[in-house]
Amino acid sequence: MESSSLQFQDFTGDSAVLSSLIASSWSENREQGLDYTPEFLQSCFEYPGMSPALAPVLMDGDRPAAFVAAFPRTLAVNGHTGRYALLTFFTVAPEYKGRGLGVRVWAECLRRVRQAGFDGALHYCVDGNVSNHATVAGARAAGYSAQRILSIPYLRAFLRSQPSDPVPALDPGRAAAALVEAAQPLAARLPIARQWSQQEALWQCHGRHGALTHWDEASGALVNGYILPVCDAARTRCLFLDEVHWGRLADEAKAPFLKSFLGRAAGQATIATVPLPGYTDPAHLKAAGFRGAPRQLHAYLTLWTSEAAPVEALYADVL
Ligand SMILES: CC(C)(COP(=O)(O)OP(=O)(O)OC[C@H]1O[C@@H](n2cnc3c(N)ncnc32)[C@H](O)[C@@H]1OP(=O)(O)O)[C@@H](O)C(=O)NCCC(=O)NCCS
Fold first, then answer.
1. Does position 1 have pLDDT exceeding 50, yes or no?
2. What's the pLDDT at 4?
3. Mutate to test the pocket of ligand 1, among 26, 130, 297 (most ligand atoms within 8 A of CB)
4. Three-state secondary structure readout of the chain
5. From the CA of 16, how far away is ligand 1's center (Å)?
6. Average pLDDT, the chain
7. Section 75-84 average pLDDT
């Protein structure tokens, strides 16, 4: 039976408590989770424009029972630029699962997102995870319709250190400006394309915990990701590749550019993984050593007054 002491509060900012809540809940999943460390979570909450009210916690007395966070993103959707929320870190504590709390916190978060003036919400669920059901049910409970718009396969690569030319120290501000510029034209060729402010791009290239960025000023090519351990016994460190922009690089220069990035990452991680939402040609990733991975995500878009239609590709971060 549901306790009457359940009530919503804004996220307090205690990333250590959140990290252990996520770890205990996600360890019950069939698929392997990531070790969302307090440092990584804290840096996520430092994203420009993020506020604690966009991360409702359903508390049972002084125990967190259910949680989800909505991070601000700017997306061009069919050519119209708007503010969308990326809902992620959806978690119900083990002892509260299956009692409707997931639906409640999801619905509450969507209400807050709408009230804060966002145009809609994007989220992802791992194929086969119960969240595919719970998030759609949560949207329905709030009076909206979450539509599955795209399925996203993954590639992965095993990293090996290789001798390479020394890389000049990254100028984060200039790399961020390059990311802002690289993303702009994607809005014209994709139905959903993320757009960046300079501050957001700076967070992406430098501010997020574990961020790693490789940028070639001459061509404008930029690849970026972050390194986090996965929840296996060895806490294997993995590079999650987020941004792949080739700039003016010739086709034959793309795989070597990526390999040089992977070579740098090899000092800090042993595997790399990259989602394929369709904005970049996987051939160049495969030429750099990436192969198919047994993981698939589903992307969902929730709009307030209409139903989103499926898309063939999108450019946005997958978290
Ligand atoms: C996903 C999660 C947040 C769902 O929270 P929850 O509180 O257990 O879900 P609810 O009780 O609100 O149930 C939501 C819906 O899913 C269904 N459901 C819940 N658990 C289920 C299960 N194990 N199998 C099948 N259906 C299930 C419920 O029947 C309900 O459907 P309905 O509204 O049609 O009746 C929770 O399972 C969890 O924390 N999982 C680990 C973290 C995770 O995987 N997050 C998502 C990463 S993509």
1. no
2. 64
3. 130
4. CCCCCEEEEECCCCHHHHHHHHHHHHCCCCCCCECCCHHHHHHHHCCCCCCHHHCEEEEECCEEEEEEEEEEEEEEECCEEEEEEEEEEEEECHHHCCCCHHHHHHHHHHHHHHHCCCCEEEEEEECCCCHHHHHHHHHHHCCCEEEEEEEEEEEEEECCCCCCCCCCCCCHHHHHHHHHHHHCCHHHHCCEEEECCHHHHHHHHHHCCCEEEEEECCCCEEEEEEEEEECCCCCCEEEEEEEEECCCCCHHHHHHHHHHHHHHHCCCCCEEEEECCCCCCHHHHHHCCCEEEEEEEEEEEEECCCCCCCCCCCECCCC
5. 24
6. 95
7. 97
